[in-house]
Amino acid sequence: MRKVYIAVVGIGLALVVVQHLSSPSSGRAVSPEDFAGACAPCGAPCPVKQ
Amino acid sequence: MSTATIDASQQRTGVGADYLFLALPIFATAILIALVLFDRQPASAGLILGGFALGIAFFKAEFSFTGAWRRFLTKGDAGGLLAGLIVIAVAALVIVPVAALSPKFGGAIAPLGPSLVIGAFTFGVGMQLANGCGSGTLYTAGAGSGRMLLALAGFIVGAVFGSLSLPAFLALGGINPVIASDYFGPWGGVAATLVSLALAAFIIALVAKRRGGGITPSRKMVIGGIVIGLLCIAVFYAGGHPWSVTFGYTVWGAKIFSAFGFDFSHAAFWQWPGPHHALESSILSDTSSLTDFGLLFGAMAAAAAGKPFAAGAWPPARSLLAALIGGLLMGWGARLGFGCNIGAFVSGVASGSLHGWVWFAAALCGCLVGIRLRPLFGLSRD
Questions:
Q1: What predicted TM-score, i.e. pTM, was given to this entire model?
Q2: Which among B83, B220, B245, B349 could bridge B134 via Cys, Cβ 3.0 to 4.6 Å?
C-alpha cells in the first residue's frame, strides 16, 4: 500500500504542477459561485432564470 | 467519533514517526504554496494551509460524520451527530452576518427542488457504503486508508457523471435559495440559524433519549468541533466563500477525462461561467481544490507523525467494491445535491440557507438505505 501512496502522491503532484504551469494565470483563486448568475456552490443557475 | 478505517488513538501505540510519509506531504504542500505565492496569491496559500490544518484536526479529533450518523440511526447514540452541529454553530456566528454585510463574501446557498433531494439521498446511501463523506473520504484517504483512496477515485468519476446529469435534474423545477438573512437581516439571520440548530439538537436528543442512546459528545469531539468550526471561518475568510470539497473532485475528474479526449464543450454544466472557468484554468485557481489538497496532505502528515504510514493490508475485495460504489454514488449525489456534508450541510446551514437542512434530512434517509446495504459487502451495520 505504501508504494501505491508514493505513486499516487508523486504522479498527482507532478500532474498538478504541470497543469498549473501550462494553464493561463487567472489571478486570485475563485469559486464557481463568484460568477454572475450562479445560484449554488457549483455555479448552477437559479431555477427562475432557466 | 471515528471511522472504521482510521483510529488516531492507535497513534499512541505506534513506534514513532514515519519520516518518509511525514516529509512527503510537507514537501508537496510547500511546492503548492510556492506555486501560488509565485503568482502573488497569498489567499490561495492561506486556503492550502487552512486545508492542511483541517486535515490534522479531522484526524486528531477522529471526526467522522458517517460513523456518527450511523451510530445515531442504528443505536440512537447522538453524541457524534451533535458534535457536528457545534461545527456549524461556530461557523455560522461569522459566515451569516459577513456574507450578508460584505459584498466581498458570499454564503453557500442553493436552490430547493428535486435535484437537491435526490442528490442528497443518493449521497447518503453512498457515504454508508464507502464509510466516509466528502471530507471523511479525503482525510481517511490521506491518512493511509487504501480503501478510501479507491472511494476517492469513485467519487471523482461519479462527480463528473453528476455534472453531466445536473442540468436535466434542475429542469425538473425548484425554487430559489431561501436564506435567513434575507428575511431577518444579518444578525436576525444568525439568531434564526442558531435557533434552527438548537431545535435540531433538541429533536435529535429527544430521539436519542427515547431509543436509550447517549447525547453527550466526548471532550475530543467538542474540542474538535470548535477547532473545525474556527477553521471553517478561516477558510471562509481566505476564499470569500464557505468551505466546499466536492467541486474540486469534479474539476479534477473533468480535467482527467479531458486529457483522455472527452469533449465537455457540449455539456451544459461545463458551459456555465464558473465550471467553464475552472475547467479552462489552473487547478490551483479553484478554491475547493486548494483546501482539498491541503486537507489530504495535512491528514497524511498527522497520520505519519505517530506510526508507520499505510502499513496495513488491503481489505477484502467486497469491501473495496463497496468503497468504489459508495464513492461513485457520493460523487453523482454531490453534484445533484449541491455538495456534501461540508459544502451543502455544514456550509449551507452555517450560511443560513434552508437547503442545508433539506440536504441533511434527505441524506439521513439515504443513510438508512446505505446501512441496510452494508452487509451485502461484508460490512457491519454498526
A1: 0.94
A2: B245
